[in-house]
Amino acid sequence: MVKRILIVDDDSNIRRIVSLALSDDSPYEVHAVASAEAALLHVARQPVDLLFTDIRMPGMDGFDLVQRVRELDPTTAVIVFTVSPQDLSPERAAQLKIDCLLEKPVSPERMRLAVDLLLDPIKLLPRPSQRDATSQPVASVVEDVSPALPTGTGPLGQRLAALRSRKPTAPLPPGVQSGGHVAVHLTPRSSGLDGRSYSEQQIEAMRLALKDMAMEPDVHCAVLADLSGIVLTHWSRRRDINITVVAALAAGNTMALAEIGRNLGQQNPGHLVIHEGQDQSILMATMGDLLLLIAIGPNASLGWARIATLRACEEILQIAKSH
């Protein structure tokens, strides 16, 4: 499905420049309006995936617009761009769940990278099939994208700074990759298959791949399981969570969503599902026969959570394929 972007600015020249930057040779459907009031009418008639708005405008300002759009559709990604970044305090950004703040003037390249990071972050990460000895590691890709988001501005920018400072999980030693005691033998999804096995060293490497994300204050728990509901490893801040039950329910939900998609004619099932709630949001990502579930609090940025989850999936896939 084509992602829709709505640009809101009272300056016609800025609307034209931003529209060209985001629509030229892009997969996005871009619309632009001159006021917050017009933007609300547009969103009410046709929801958008990303709101790209100025702050200071005649009539309703950008802050009120973001709040109203959040009431209509809490899943909308938000980029605020302004000549006065000091207008947006970190507290206000967290309250409105603004994903990114860009300071005018901003180059078309940075605008496009910021949008891609929120709407299509997985294309910024090389797929395993595209990697070779000369491919960039995931950390390098995050570093290349990061200039689109000023350091420390908004929840997503602050979290990306943490991602940039993090070193990727070290590869397993050669002797461990091909050998090692089998710690978990997963149930095969098809008859006639033996299922996958993971060594203790692989599972420990997977646990460490989740550690930095799981230690974020807004992350309630992180669970890695297979699609039959077997828990491989997890992190949790609460002792009252039954991880075994959570994994089993997540596996069942994932299989049910895949079946719903097949019945609706879906050719390529999605690999990332987000359930947004008032007090907690849940992200579930599938990687072949593996499932990663992340639960985050209401103050966490969904933009950051999506990127961190996809990054963790990339690392876990590397570890799984090292067997």
From TrEMBL:
<dbReference type="GO" id="GO:0000160">
    <property type="term" value="P:phosphorelay signal transduction system"/>
</dbReference>
<dbReference type="Pfam" id="PF03259">
    <property type="entry name" value="Robl_LC7"/>
</dbReference>
<feature type="domain" description="Response regulatory">
    <location>
        <begin position="4"/>
        <end position="119"/>
    </location>
</feature>
<keyword id="KW-0597">Phosphoprotein</keyword>
<dbReference type="Pfam" id="PF00072">
    <property type="entry name" value="Response_reg"/>
</dbReference>
<dbReference type="InterPro" id="IPR001789">
    <property type="entry name" value="Sig_transdc_resp-reg_receiver"/>
</dbReference>
<dbReference type="InterPro" id="IPR004942">
    <property type="entry name" value="Roadblock/LAMTOR2_dom"/>
</dbReference>
<dbReference type="InterPro" id="IPR011006">
    <property type="entry name" value="CheY-like_superfamily"/>
</dbReference>
<feature type="modified residue" description="4-aspartylphosphate">
    <location>
        <position position="54"/>
    </location>
</feature>
<protein>
    <submittedName>
        <fullName>Response regulator</fullName>
    </submittedName>
</protein>
<dbReference type="InterPro" id="IPR050595">
    <property type="entry name" value="Bact_response_regulator"/>
</dbReference>
